[in-house]
Amino acid sequence: MPPKKSQLKVKAANVSSSLDLESEDISLETTVPTTEDVSSSDELRNGSQKMTRQLIEKKELLHNIQLLKIELSQKNLIIDNMKADHMSKIEELEEKLNDTLHQKQVLALRLDSQLKVAQEENRKQQSLRKQEMETILLRQQQLEETNRQLCEKAGELRRSLRELDISHDRYLELRDFPEDRLSIQEYVAMRFYEVVTPLRDEVKELSVKKSTLTEELDIHRSQMKSLMESYEEERRLRTELELRCQKLTLELADTKQRIQEGDYRRENYPMLKRERDTCEAELKELKRRFETLDLSHTALTRERNTLSKEVATLQQSVTLLQKDKEYLHRQNMELNVRCAHEEDRLERLQVQLEDTKKAREEAYEKYINTIISI
């Protein structure tokens, strides 16, 4: 780029120098005719006028030529500048083209290497998938065999757990055998008999005890009822005696008042003495009967308290027996629920196995489809 600019400057200087020389020639040519016109005579005036016209025309032509040369030189400069710009652009484009070709070659080499690596990885993945498929098929066969064995065992277990009740003689026979030689049904039936039989005996004993205690409770209730009736009768008699005692006390007060009023004492002394003795005897009898009733009342109260305690104890024992019965019933229900839970678990395992088969078949189909698509 700098050498081209210097060449353009040299050309511009040459053009300007040539224009200066031409202008000097024109000025010399114009000055010579003017001096000749001044020194010439009148005869040559017409010729001089023609010459001046020619010189003016020539000067105009030279001036136009000079303008055209200047314009031509300017256009040449513009053309040279445009050529220089185009050359620089061409060089830049060639450099870019070379860089692009180099990048293309590098990318082509890189693409080839990546393609080779991808093909190698694809081969490795195909080999790994084949190995995985073989492993899956082997595992499938093992699972099918295990499923068949589990189904057989589940059927046998379900059939064996239907009837678990055995007799005492059968239990004694099974107990003599070692556990390794017993089947699942026999082992479960034996354990079930060992757990349930004591509970059944205990339930029977508790039911008998409950009936006995119920009868005793009824007897005690009847005795308590009779004692309450006798207690009410004695209480009624005591009330009557208290009323009679109050009446006699009032009569005694009236009698004392009569004695104070006159000689009633001397006149009626024997009768009063008899009445007093009678009243004292009746009072003693009433006191004796009152003490007897009080003692009997205390004894009845004590016996009533004892019976109440016994009734509470019997009720507690009945409640405990009911709780024991409920506990035994719950244990029996839990055993039944556990058996049903095991059956449900076995069914769930079968369903899971079926789902595993379906998932394995779907994975196998997907793998086959991927291999086919590849």
Automatic annotation (TrEMBL):
Keywords: Coiled coil. Residues 23-49 are annotated as: Disordered. Residues 83-110, 203-366 form a coiled coil. One of its GO terms (biological process) is cilium assembly. One of its GO terms (cellular component) is microtubule organizing center. InterPro entries: PIBF1. PANTHER family: PROGESTERONE IMMUNOMODULATORY BINDING FACTOR 1 (PTHR18950:SF0), PROGESTERONE-INDUCED BLOCKING FACTOR 1 (PTHR18950). This is Progesterone immunomodulatory binding factor 1. The lineage of its organism: Eukaryota, Metazoa, Chordata, Craniata, Vertebrata. The gene is pibf1.
